[in-house]
Design a protein that fits this description.
4-stranded antiparallel beta sheet, 2 domains, transmembrane helix, 12 strands, alpha+beta, membrane, 236 residues, 6-stranded antiparallel beta sheet
Length: 236
């Protein structure tokens, strides 16, 4: 007959202070999961808001004629787009210009496309990724721009390639509103009127903008900026 050994129950003693410390830590972890974002928002807002302006930088461009905005810089497309009565977007770090094609150009008629065609283009400039859909016959366009994961404005590039007058206009468009404790810089994009060469802000505190006969609507989601343009003859 085999004998069965009785297993003895084992008990471990822990100090009372350690037990309650574990309970407190557990409760704090649960609170952090459920209320962490709310707590962070309250901490962020407790520092107040600030308006940050970048006006005051000096241009180092020697010849005004070489300005990327008002001049004839060899690699700037502004010299081409100034002939059109439309508006567009500029990627400030590489001065890549995107046209909101809300009207059909004379040169496009050679393709013999139907009146209601939609032009779809995508691209990667090295600074931004964009997807554009434009319907000239309806005076509508939409562009979605994705910024790099860590983006910032290349101030030296702007100083070297813009005359003082144009630099001041671009810097004015970069004014941002932020919480004092928030790590945030300006979005390296702006809107441009090809006819007047006026610059308009694309910072995230702007959700809409009237530019002559156009209404521009902006939506922001993390690193994505969605821009919709509508031709409204009575907008101005």
């Amino acid at each position: 007959m085999q004998e069965t050994e009785k297993r003895k129950s084992k008990y471990y003693r822990i100090p009372v202070w350690m037990f309650w410390s574990m309970i407190v830590v557990f409760v704090l972890l649960i609170g952090a999961v459920y209320f962490g974002e709310e707590i962070y928002e309250k901490w962020l807002h407790s520092g107040g808001r600030a308006e940050i302006s970048y006006v005051g930088a000096e241009s180092t461009l020697k010849e005004k004629a070489a300005c990327c905005l008002c001049g004839s810089n060899d690699w700037s497309l502004m010299n081409y787009y100034r002939q059109f009565d439309t508006i567009g977007l500029i990627s400030l770090n590489d001065w890549y210009v995107l046209d909101f094609k809300t009207e059909e150009y004379e040169e496009d008629r050679q393709y013999g496309l139907d009146n209601g065609y939609t032009c779809i283009t995508t691209g990667n400039t090295g600074e931004i990724i964009y997807h554009a859909e434009e319907t000239p016959s309806r005076g509508m366009a939409s562009i979605e721009v994705t910024l790099p994961e860590k983006y910032s404005v290349d101030m030296e590039f702007l100083r070297e390639n813009l005359c003082q007058e144009c630099l001041d206009k671009v810097l004015e468009s970069m004014e941002i509103s932020k919480w004092n404790r928030e790590k945030k810089g300006p979005i390296p994009l702006c809107l441009v009127d090809f006819k007047t060469l006026e610059i308009y802000s694309l910072q995230d505190w702007h959700v809409g903008q009237t530019i002559r006969d156009y209404w521009v609507k902006m939506d922001y989601e993390n690193r994505k900026i969605m821009i919709s343009v509508f031709t409204c003859p009575n907008a101005s």
